[in-house]
Every structure is written in C-alpha cells, then in structure tokens.
Amino acid sequence: MKYFKLKILVVLLIGFQSYSLFSQQLTPPIHNYSSTDYKAASQNWDIDVDEEGVIYAANNQGLLSFDGQTWELSPLPNGSIIRSVFVYGDKIFTGSYKEFGYWKKDNTGELYYTSLIPKLGKYAMQSEEFWEILEFNGDIYFRSFGAIYKYDNKAIKPVQNIVSNKMLIYKNKLLLAVRKKGIYFLDDNNELQKLPNQDILNDEVIVDMAIQGENLIIGTREKLFKYNWEGCTLLKDPQLLEELERSELNHVMTSGDYRILLGTVKNGIINYDETSKTYSIFNRNSGLQNNTILGFVEKHGNIWLGLDNGIDRIEIDSPVEFYTDDTGELGAVYDLVFYNDKMFLASNTGVYTFNNNQLEIIEGAEGHTWNLEILNDTLYVNHNTGTYYLLEDKLEPVETSTGSFKISDLPYSRNEYLISSYTGIRNFSRKEDSIYSLDSLNFPVKNIVFENESTLWAAHPYEGLYRVGLKNNFKDTQFIDKINIPDGGNSINTNVFIINNQVAVFNGDQWFKYNSFKDSLFVFEELQAFRKHKMLLKDLDSYWFSHTENNSLKFTNFDDNNIVVAPGNLNNRLVKNYEKILKNGDSLYYIALNDGFARLDLAKFIKNLNNVHISTPTVKGFLDIDGRHSLENYPEVPYKSSRDLNIYTSFPVSEAMGLRYRLRGEDTLSGEVKNGIINLQNLNHGDYQLQLLAVGPQAKIAKKNSFNFSINPPWYLSNIMKLVYMLIILSLVVLVYWYNQLKLRKHQRVLEEKFEKEHQERLNNLEKERLKNQITLKRKELANTTMVAAKKNEMLMEIQNELNKDKSSFPNQFKMKHILNKINRAIKNKDEWQVFETNFNELHQDFFKDILDSYPHLTSKDLKLCSYLKMNLTSKEIAPLMGISVRGVEVHRYRLRKKMDLDKKENLTNFLIKNF
C-alpha cells in the first residue's frame, strides 16, 4: 500500500512538472562561439584583447584570434598547447610547455611566431608550463608554477625559482601569490619581500587577484578578501561565500568601484554587487556553453570568456535582457501582456505565465496561440482551437467552433466584441452571452479596425483588405468591398491601422491612407520616411516600428526623436512578420522573440548611445590569385593577377550594425562585407580607393577607413610599351612624313618632268611649227623661186622660139646666134640650179642621197626631174625649168620610170613623195 502511494506521488509530481518548465532569471545578451565556429579545440585556457578589440585566446591547438569578422588559428611550430596569452603593443606573447615567445604581423598581415627560448642561453629550463604573462616597467614577465622569467627585449633572465599561482601589478609593484605563504613583491634586486598586514592569508591557496580602486581583491577557491596596506579582511557575505563553496572560484575581475566578476569552475560567472550585496549568476542555464571559466577579459562593456568548451561574450551592462527557453518547449512567442501582476506569454505551444522568474503553462492552454487581449479587465486568448478567457488561472471557452486571430471591442459598446476568426467575423456579447456570425463575411480575418461607428476594415491573411459596412447592431453586413492596393501592390500580410484618426494601410513596403471622398487608397506622404517599416505600438505621442527586411526596431515621434534598435541588440531573434512589443512602466518594453522574450530599458538604451563604441574597420590582408601583398605600401597588383582579388577586413565586435564597403576608381562598386571578405573580380586597371564604412546603431555611418591600391595595366599598356607605342607612332609619323615628302618630291619630279616634257613639247611644237613655217616659207620661196625661174625660162624659151622663127630676117646672124646662146645659157643656168638644189636640200634632206642609194644609176638630169616631181610640179611646170619641151619631160619621165622599174599603175610623183 505504501509503495502504491509512492507511485501515485511520483506520477503527480511528473504531471505537475509538465506544467512548469524551469526557473530562470533575465540575462544580458550572451553570444556563443563554439569550436565548430572557430574550428579549433574546445578548451581555451586564457584570453586577451588588443587596443583595437581583436580577441586572442590560448587554445589547445594554438593561438586563436577573432577580429569581429573571422576566426584564425595559428599553431605553434611544435604544435603544443598554449596556456597563456598577453597582448603588449604590436606583439602577442604566449606561453606553453617549455616554450614562450611572441607573435607579430608581417607586412602582409599574417602572424608569425618568434621563440624566446634561444635567448635563455645556457640556462636549463625544467619541465615547466607558462600560465601567466604580464608587463612591468617595459619588461615582460612569464610565470610558470615553478619560476618567474623576465624578458627585457634583449635577453631572458630567470628572476625567481618559486611556486606561485598569480602575478599582478599593484601600486607599482610586481606581486606574486606564493602558494600557502601569502603575497610577496619583487624589490629592486628582484628579491622577494612579503606584503605587510596579511596574516589572514597564511595557509590560503590564492587562485587570483584583481585591483579595485586602492584595494586588492584576493580570491581563494572558496573565499574573497580585500586588501590594502593597512590590512586584509574577508568579504563576509554568507550567501556569496556559500555560492563560492559550491562553485569553486577560478578567476577574479573587477568592473567599476563595486562590481566583482568571479569566474568559477562549476557554475560560470558570478556577478557580485558589493553595494547591494546581491549577485547574479550566468551559467549554462543562462546561455553559457560551459560552466568552467578558464579566463576572461573586458573590452568596451563586453566580457569575453575563455571556457573549457568554447568562447562566450557577455554584454554585461546591456539595456536589453533576455529570457531564453533553450529546451524549445516554449517555442516562438506571438504576444505578451501583464495581467493581475503576472506576465502572460502566447506562443506556438500555448499560453504561459512568467512570474518570479518562473515559467508555467496555463491549464488547458496547450496549442498555438495568436493573441492576448485585455478587455474590460478580462484577459482573452485567441487560440488555434477557438477563443477563450482567463478565469482563476484556467482558460474558459468563449466559442470553439473555429480558431481565431484577434478580439476587438466594439465602439460605444462596453460588453460587445468582434472576434476575427479563421472563417470570418463573430459578434460576441458578454452581457447576453451570445455569439452571432456575420454570415455574408465568410473568409478568414486576422485583424479589424473601425473607420467609424458602422464601417470597419478587415485584413485577410492572404487576399488583402475589405471595407465592411455593418447594420442591425453589428450583427449583419451592409456591404463588403474589396480594396485594391495601388500600383498592383502586395496583398499578403497587408495590415491596417488607425493613425491620428486616419485609416492607414501597410503592405510590407509602402504606406497608404484612405480617402473617403474618392473611395480609394493613396500614398501616405507623411510616412514616406517609414517605407518597409510596420507599426507595432502607439506609445503616447511616439510609435514603434519594425523593419520588414532587416528586423530592426525604430522608436520615433515623427520629429527629432528616432531611435533604432538593431537586430544584433535582440540577437536577431524577432518573430518575422509577427513582431510584438509591449510597454510596462515608464521606460521598460517587452519584445516577443522566437524562443522567449526581451526586456528593453529604453532610457538606458538612449543614454548608452552617447557612449557607444564603434570599432574602426581595417584591411588585414590583400590577396590576388598569386598570393598576399604588403600592406605597408601602396599595393600594386599585376594585371594578370588581378582577375580575382580577396580583401580581408578586421572589424572588432562593437555596437555597430554592420560593415559596408564602397570602391572608387576605374570601377565603382558597393555592398555589405560578409564574413570579413570582399571579393573583387575582373576590375579594370587603374587606381582604386576602398572605403570601409562602419554603420552605427542608428543606421548612420559612424566610422570610415580607406585603403588604396592599384592594378597595373596589362603588358601591352605598360609605361614601357606606351613609350614603345609612342616611338612607333612617332616613327610612323616620321615614316609617313618621309614617305609623303618622298612622294611629294617624286610627284614634284613627275610634275617637273611633265612640265619639262610639256615645255619641251611646247618648244618642240613651237620649233616644229617654226620649222614647219620655215619649211612652208622655204617651200613657198622654193616654189616661188622655181616658178619665177620657170616663168623666166618659159619667157626666155618663148623669146628663143620667136627669135628662131625670125632668125633669117635678123640682119646680124652672128649677133643673133650670140643672143640665142645667151638665152640658152640663161635657160640652163647652173647657178640657179645650185641655188634650187641648196634650197631643196634644206627642205628635203638626204633626198638625193636616199634616191641614189636606191637607184645609183640615175643621172643628174634624172635627179633634177625627181626633185621637181617631189615638189609635185607638173610636166608643164617642169619643162621650162629643164629647158625642154613638155614632150621631152614626158619622155624623160618615162625613162625614169624604166630606170626605177616602176609599175605602170604606180604614179611616179606619188612614189617619190611617199618614199623619199
């Protein structure tokens, strides 16, 4: 019987637990970086940060670095585990087993390691691991569990062979926590001197120390002490000491005058406030990956934790705190309200209460829940199975015929409501306890707003908006008009609101307002600056909006007050398309998330904006297809290597919303830097400037940095080739000039020759003409002379004939004879022939020679006849010249033909003219 009762008790306990998830406090943002994220070993023994905010962790596989964009692992040459890391200037010192040294970036941005062990000289190091490194008076000190070594930038010298757990600089002294002997410091001779007034620490094993103002906070495994030169006291906080006893202290860090952060082995971080004597714990239940804190460091309000499994970051003073359900049992939260001093959450798994950090599901509220609404002091629940109201921590049904999205009160009616359901709109009267369906409205409605007392707007989940007129006490419809979105706008997820008594419609991109006179929608000009911003909440004279693309939130009064809550501030956990924000108090806002909710202190958020830190983006690597380039000078990339450029950026974690780039030069590009890499392909040759733009928390460019590089032209456009081209062009110009000159001279010569020829021809023609004229003249003269001679001879012959007729009658015969002889001599005057021959030869050179060459047997008389025939004289004209009769001429011609053996048909005159 007892065993049966025990079984019943166990069953009841299990049943009760099904309604209670777990108790968890609200925590600041915690960011996890697992070994799969940084691709190295899980254990991180120490962690440090440089001035720019780059994180360095001592990992089991080497030195791990994170610049806000990418993780990089740099193994030691011997591959051993790194136990400690310390950043000093541009060097990162690390310690491991029988090895310590420093890392430094070369001119291309890559880390390289320099071991300092060779500087030990002949000193024989024991089997030591180096767990701590710090700087004191410009020297670097390395601590193992058995010795202290000093590096003075020249050599390594052993300082003390002593077992110590911690080093610290306090009041310009190097302190050493000597195991079970208290705290000592090194004097000017590197001798150990014990701090005064610390007897309480005798036999205590000190694990860590930290400085808080003028005091020294000292931690053992289970206790905390506060020391100054006057003495040492135990922090007597029973609850804290009890917690330390359970958690086992490992590290101590102070922040401000009253906060102490305690890293434990078993329970994560203890955040202790000395003023209020209160503390909070951040462990695996709060979101840490592991409860064992191996090292931590603070930078710009971020606490970086080196864990036994991973690396975490806590925004310790964030104005945003989270409740996170890591079990997945809560699911995505769609709505939240405060009712009867309790917080209620509506999620895809049911309705829960959150009270005193305890989350508990309401009985009968399992299932997808869309909305919580408080109307007339009653909490209503719009559920996947119907509509309910809360009664004594239990849901009671209003109606369960279909699921519902929202419930709204009717204007001017205190106890009547309209329920927007999966199948239409229902009129619910609380007073009469009755429900009426608007039969003519039979499509799903997710939300309604009233334009006036009898007209409402209904938002369909998929098909847009309807304007509905009501009658009969809101139990029937007068008209149902489909509203068209201008310019073919999207209808899915269209929302309708009342802003300043104006019906406003948002379709995911653009805002519209309803013009009742024209019965249509027009662009809402006053909200043009809020495109892609959906309204979530009206808060007095201000409004909350959510950005439909990047999931940021904006708080605005439409004037000078515009506050942006970046997606990163909410860990990118808003419920897309179902964003919800609730005000509770003067400055506290609760925001629904996909695995819990966030609490935003807006006043603190705005105050922090004045001290917000934005890290400076830089270029840490510049690579072409052939390798890395130096970052010290202006990189010049060969054209053949520039087809694919990768630029690696460093942008340490800060309050920035993102990093953008803008490339200026021969090509102009811009975009968002993703994963720390900017890939540029097929750029034209020329000079470029890459601008890195850090986007601040208010979506404005907060910081800029630039990086210049150039792409050399291809070989055929290089300076040498340009010189060659210039020489070639110059040579071509010279060649063309020379050729043109040559051509010109040739043309000139041709012209001169032509001119000379033409001139000569003109001269020749003139000479020929002159000769022709002269010949013509001579011919005329010859002809005239011949004709004169012929006439003279003809007259003489006539006289001779007359005399011969009267010869007998002449008294003096002797004188007659003498006269006849004189006439005969005159007729046959040789001088006249010589003159004729001379003149004839001038006209017809070589005539006699040529004819004699052809007919050598011709006589002088024959030649004389030929000459007269050549002159085309008739026999009648020839006869007087030869002093013979015409008959004699004919006979002579006949004989001449015979001598020339001419054909009878051949004309002698033509023959002589043509051939001679």
UniProtKB/TrEMBL annotation:
One of its GO terms (biological process) is regulation of DNA-templated transcription. Residues 1-23 form the signal peptide. The keyword Transmembrane applies. It comes from Salegentibacter salegens. The chain crosses the membrane at residues 715-739. The lineage of its organism: Bacteria, Pseudomonadati, Bacteroidota, Flavobacteriia, Flavobacteriales. Keywords: Membrane, Signal, Transmembrane, Transmembrane helix. Residues 855-912 form the HTH luxR-type domain. InterPro entries: Ig-like_fold, Sig_transdc_resp-reg_C-effctor, Tscrpt_reg_LuxR_C, WD40/YVTN_repeat-like_dom_sf, WH-like_DNA-bd_sf. Gene3D superfamilies: Immunoglobulins, Winged helix-like DNA-binding domain superfamily/Winged helix DNA-binding domain, YVTN repeat-like/Quinoprotein amine dehydrogenase. This is Regulatory protein, luxR family. SUPFAM superfamilies: C-terminal effector domain of the bipartite response regulators (SSF46894), Calcium-dependent phosphotriesterase (SSF63829). GO terms for molecular function: DNA binding. Pfam families: GerE.
